[in-house]
Amino acid sequence: MLLTISMSTPLTARDLWAIIVKLPHDEQVRLARMALHAAARGGGADAAAYGAVPPEPDEFSCEDDPLAWESDGWEDLDASR
């Protein structure tokens, strides 16, 4: 079976599911182990990306008071008692 993949559209797990369910059980387990191993070491790519272009000082900042939105509307919660 030849699988043609276009790199312009990223694959999803659902795209591969029809193929995976056709595998024998031992091959499904093998594939799961390989996928978990690859996912476990995949975090290094993030570290490399942040090393190349570190976040700006204001990248995660917010001009609003972070607790202000949480206080709105709570005064009405106990009003019916």
Q: Mind explaining what this structure looks like?
A:
With 81 residues, the chain is mainly α. Helices cover 46% and strands 0% of the residues. It has 4 helices and no strands. The chain is flat, with a radius of gyration of 24 Å.
Describe the secondary-structure layout.
Elements: H1 13-20, H2 25-40, H3 44-52, H4 68-71
Counting H and I runs of at least 4 residues, what is the number of helices?
Answer: 4
* Strand residue content: under 5%
Distance between the ends: 68 Å
Proportion of residues in helical segments: 40-55%
Contiguous uncertain segments of 5+ residues? none
Supply the helix-strand structural class.
mainly alpha
Element string (H = helix, E = strand): HHHH
Kindly state the number of beta strands.
Answer: 0
Shape type: flat
The biggest beta sheet, please?
none
Mean pLDDT: 75
Key descriptive features of the protein:
81 residues; mainly alpha; 4 helices; 0% strand; flat
Q: What's the short story on this structure?
A:
The chain has helices at residues 13-20, 25-40, 44-52, 68-71. The protein is mainly α.
